[in-house]
Amino acid sequence: MDSRDMKPPAPYENAVTFQFGDTPELADELLALVLAGEKTATCGALRDFNDKEPVPEAGRRDVVLDGSGRPACVIETTSVLIQRFDQVDEAFALAEGEGPYEAWRDAHIAYFGRNGGYQPDMVLVCERFRLVDVFER
Question: What Pfam families is this protein classified in (predicted)?
């Protein structure tokens, strides 16, 4: 059975599933930050959300997949703010756990550039979350 076909265990078998980043390596790197308690926020371009990965809502629990597509953990959204890229503040960037604001900004400009294009006024879904459960892999 391909790991991407693995369903999360009960009671999360019908939860939204997603990976952080855009490569298996980045997915694993960002997942490690979540598991270490260093990453408690994430953002994505509003344009990229769809029926398979809907915009998060406070209280919803999602399953995070590792770089191999295996269910790794469950996060619960605590808040969502939809705002422009150039409105993201340092506190949110630091909550993403990827370094100081300048590093966050540069990494996200590159990420969005690789994935549909970057604009300073592009609309982001900025999500804060808490770690709820960790699965054995």
Answer: ASCH
Closest CA to 56 of 35, 66, 42: 42
Q: Which two tokens stand for residue 58?
A: 């406070």
C-alpha to C-alpha distance for 78 and 117, rounded to whole angstroms: 28
Residue 59: closest CA among 134, 127, 135: 127
What is the pLDDT at residue 6?
Answer: 79
Residue 19, CA distances (Å) to 56, 61, 70, 87, 101 in order: 14, 14, 10, 25, 22
Domain segments of the chain: what residues? 17-134
Q: Which residues contact 125 (CB under 8 A, 6 or more apart)?
A: 43, 44, 45, 46, 49, 55, 56, 80, 82
17-134 maps to which CATH number? 3.10.400.10
Give the tokens for residue 108. Answer: 């996200």
